[in-house]
Design a protein that fits this description.
Blueprint: E1 2-4, H1 10-15, H2 26-33, H3 35-41, H4 44-60, E2 64-67, H5 71-83, H6 91-116, H7 124-147, E3 152-154, H8 156-160, H9 163-166, H10 169-175, E4 176-178, E5 180-183, E6 190-193, H11 200-220, H12 223-242, H13 246-265, H14 269-287, H15 291-299, H16 305-321, H17 347-373, H18 380-395, H19 404-421, E7 440-444
Antiparallel strand pairs: 1-7, 2-7, 3-4, 5-6
Length: 445
């Protein structure tokens, strides 16, 4: 490996697809735009492996592959994650390990793919709009949950899988589809959005992580796109509140406030006003409508707090028994029959139990590296990508970041780091290099 900066225009010619070839954005289309199809088919669990394999093959066809300095932290995490598989002791835990592990690998492949594809071939605005389309899918799932809270149906995978596999609760949750998860937290049944995911917490986590991409897409898309999605965002405030996801409320609010602080620090008045207007509008919709009663009711009903705290304490106790390698996957819990496994309900706890303290430190180390090195981005796209990483770190205490969340975050990191580490391919070869632009590491022949 050697340090080098991508400056050769020939790199662009080498990446452009031939006639009849795949569009450079094909991995993003498969993961984000086509996600509803995989959900209906019930194959989202294997989609990550397929994309990781196909994307990996695409990367192998390139003469050179670059990664930012510091990416070794993430690669060490992947290695430690694989080593921890030696601690798996049951079939269902092995299935969960493969499911999450393939998501980490898929996110890695997408990061390297986006990072190495010059913006002249795969523009920032193209990536932003494709991921923002996934926000439309998630928001649409929330609206469907409002309209059909009791809807439930079998995916194609559920119809063909043997009963022995469907008896595994984890697999059943992935292939049996519902728009909403009925809950009585407030004392009456309420449909909390979950489509197109298996759990309502996943819906809330993804909604918060995708919203910065949506806001960034308003500057990159057409007026029609901007108007339609702005209206959809305002309407989605209803499903956001009805989801009762306090973690989403917290992480999204902090994310928007953090974005405002970044724009204020840069002295950029226009985007600062835009963020302030968005926040004020969303708060106004809640405050001046019956939605305020739902929020107050949720805050006054700490339905799951005791259970979560007990689960977190159990995770700490379990990690003490295997602090280095962990257990490969979350472990069964005896706190409540049929309750959540130990090492769930938060990426922090998932990593601690599954991959031990080293796995946790390596994961957090990479995320902090990405957050720190993307802080100087000045374009709207790069600021919002930086905010996505921030939101993910906030969510670690209470939301898992696999399978879709880590992919969203890694794409955001790739976009922001690509601008800082690899200059435009069409830039003058002897042009000035930004002060904080660090050479990328080249891997290849």
């Amino acid at each position: 490996m050697s340090a080098d900066l991508a400056r050769q225009p020939a790199a662009v010619r080498g990446l452009r697809p031939s006639r009849g070839g795949l569009h450079p954005a094909w991995p993003l289309v498969v993961v984000f735009v086509a996600y509803p199809l995989w959900w209906v088919l019930g194959v989202t669990a294997v989609m990550w492996t397929a994309v990781a394999l196909l994307g990996g093959i695409a990367l192998l066809t390139r003469r050179r592959v670059r990664v930012p300095r510091g990416f070794g932290i993430w690669l060490l995490f992947l290695a430690w994650m694989l080593i921890s598989a030696s601690q798996l002791s049951a079939f269902d835990r092995s299935v969960a390990f493969v499911y999450r592990g393939s998501a980490y690998l898929c996110a890695t492949v997408l990061f390297i793919y986006v990072f190495n594809t010059p913006k002249e071939v795969l523009p920032d605005k193209t990536v932003i709009r494709l991921v923002a389309m996934f926000w439309v899918v998630v928001a649409g799932g929330g609206l469907l949950a409002m309209a059909f809270p009791t809807a439930s149906f079998s995916s194609l995978a559920e119809l063909v899988l043997p009963r022995s596999l469907l008896n595994v609760r984890f697999i059943e949750s992935l292939v049996h589809l519902e728009f909403a998860q009925t809950s009585r937290i407030l004392g009456f049944p309420i449909g909390r959005p979950r489509a197109p995911f298996a759990f309502t917490n996943a819906w809330g986590s993804n909604f918060a992580l995708l919203t910065p991409f949506l806001v960034a897409s308003w500057a990159a898309g057409s007026r029609r796109w901007s108007r339609l999605t702005r209206v959809m965002l305002l309407v989605s405030v209803v499903s956001v509140v009805v989801s009762l996801n306090r973690g989403m409320w917290l992480s999204l609010s902090l994310g928007l406030l953090y974005a405002a602080a970044r724009f204020a620090r840069q002295g950029r008045v226009r985007p600062l006003i835009g963020v302030g207007t968005l926040l004020a509008t969303m708060v106004g919709i809640v405050y001046f409508t019956p939605l305020l009663g739902v929020v107050e009711g949720r805050q006054a009903t700490p339905h799951s707090d005791a259970g979560r705290l007990a689960l977190y304490q159990a995770s700490i106790n379990l990690a003490r028994e295997s602090p280095v390698l962990g257990y490969g996957a979350p472990q069964p819990s005896d706190l409540k029959e049929g309750g959540a496994s130990i090492g769930t309900h938060g990426q922090f706890w998932l990593l601690l139990v599954s991959h031990g303290l080293p796995g946790l430190l390596l994961y957090v180390g990479w995320m902090l590296f990405a957050l720190w090195h993307t802080r100087r981005g000045r374009s709207d796209v790069h600021v919002w990508c930086h905010v996505v990483i921030f939101i993910s770190l906030v969510q670690m205490a209470f939301y898992e970041q696999v399978p879709t969340q880590i992919t969203i975050v890694m794409v955001a990191a790739a976009l922001a780091l690509r601008a800082l580490y690899i200059p435009s391919v069409t830039a003058p070869p002897d042009g000035p290099v930004a002060e904080d632009r660090v050479p990328a590491v080249k891997v290849g022949v």
